[in-house]
Amino acid sequence: MAIDYFFRLFFSGLTRGSIYALLALGYTMVYGIIKLINFAHGEIYMIGAFTALIMATVFSFTGMPALAILVLSSIIAMVYSSAYGFTIEKLAYKPLRQAPRLSVLISAIGMSLFLQNYVLLAQTSNFLPYPSLLPAVKVPPFLRGIVNGPQLIIFGTTAVVMVALTLLIKFTMIGKSMRATSQDRTMATLVGINVNKVISWTFVIGSFTAALGGILISSYTGQINFYVGFIAGIKAFVAAVLGGIGSIPGAVLGSLVLGMAEAFAAGYISSVYEDVFAFVILVLILIFKPSGLLGKPEVQKV
After folding, report:
1. Staple 28 to which of 21, 251, 280, 293, CB 3.0 to 4.6 Å?
2. Using an 8 Å Cβ cutoff, are 196 and 86 in contact?
3. CB burial string 169-189: b at 16+ within 10 A, e below
4. In this structure, are residues 160 and 139 in contact, taking their beta carbons and an 8 Å threshold?
5. Which residues of the chain have pLDDT under 50?
6. Cβ(252)–Cβ(10) under 8 Å?
7. Three-state secondary structure string covering the chain
8. C-alpha to C-alpha distance for 103 and 94, rounded to whole angstroms
9. For 148-191, what is each residue's pLDDT tens digit?
């Protein structure tokens, strides 16, 4: 039926959007604080997925239950990826904190290419099968045939992460420090905030959510290779800009809009053009609302 097909596309778009949101949050948090586009962010997503794959393979030989394997391998992968994010900030971005933006941009692109080729040499250029780590979930009767258990897990996990991140930024000391640093880095330093620590924590948290997204989508699609982070990273960057770079609600909204656009374009027109429609929407939004859907025009300080 046409209505069932519509809802299958809707939930497919929601799945894509949920994964893009986990990545876009890292982009928008980093940009909101230091006005930097971390183009190596997609590679953190990819490294997290590869690490979970390796750890799950190791744990499978111990005879551990599937749920324990999922939890342990995911935690290790997210912590490991967060360490990568922390290290990237210290090596590639902190020394260029006062440098022109072009220098930082080139450093970010160089780090992205380095990580891609590092994983290519350490693993393989071919797609590798990815085990279905997500546990079985019963789908409500009225949703059977249009959504599956792994999709529900992805929706639920993304929603929990969004709520947790919102609470962290609004009510915790590190969150308040992030908001202060975002508003005025100099004044934040004058009132005793360790700006370098705040920036490092931003990279760590963003890398944590990116790795989670990589684990979820790789387990859902059943395959992975060294290049998946680049494609996902570009899409998440588009989503962040679409929603309003620097705005956390905007990153989520932009991700959902992008995911829906791709799903419906692929379902009703052709999967060949799904990327085209996504970028057409981005261009239209930037023409009529340059700051993004929920972004605010940047005020120049004089």
Report:
1. 251
2. no
3. beeeeebebbebbbeebeebe
4. no
5. 302
6. no
7. CHHHHHHHHHHHHHHHHHHHHHHHHHHHHHHHHHCCCCCCHHHHHHHHHHHHHHHHHHHHCCCCCHHHHHHHHHHHHHHHHHHHHHHHHHHHHHHHCCCCHHHHHHHHHHHHHHHHHHHHHHCCCCCEECCCCCCCCCCCHHHECCECHHHHHHHHHHHHHHHHHHHHHHHCHHHHHHHHHHHCHHHHHHCCCCHHHHHHHHHHHHHHHHHHHHHHHHHHHCEECCCHHHHHHHHHHHHHHHHCCCCHHHHHHHHHHHHHHHHHHHHHCCHHHHHHHHHHHHHHHHHHCCCCCCCCCCCCCC
8. 12
9. 888 888 988 989 998 898 899 888 999 899 989 888 888 888 88
- State the Cα–Cα distance between residues 50 and 302, nearest whole angstrom: 47
Contacts 24+ apart (CB under 8 A), 55-63: 56/131, 56/133, 57/131, 60/131
Which two structure tokens, joined as six digits, stand for 130? Answer: 């990815």
Between CA 146 and CA 7 the distance in angstroms is: 6
Residue among 281, 302, 276 nearest 292 (CA):
281
Residue with tokens 């210290």: 90
d(CA 103, CA 96): 7
Q: How far is CA 141 from CA 135, 144, 148, 156, in A?
A: 18, 5, 11, 18
Residues written for the chain: 302
Q: According to the model, what pLDDT value does residue 50 have?
A: 94
Q: What is the pLDDT of residue 201?
A: 92
**Contact 220/70 with Cβ under 8 angstroms?**
no
- CA–CA separation, 247 and 79 (whole Å): 25
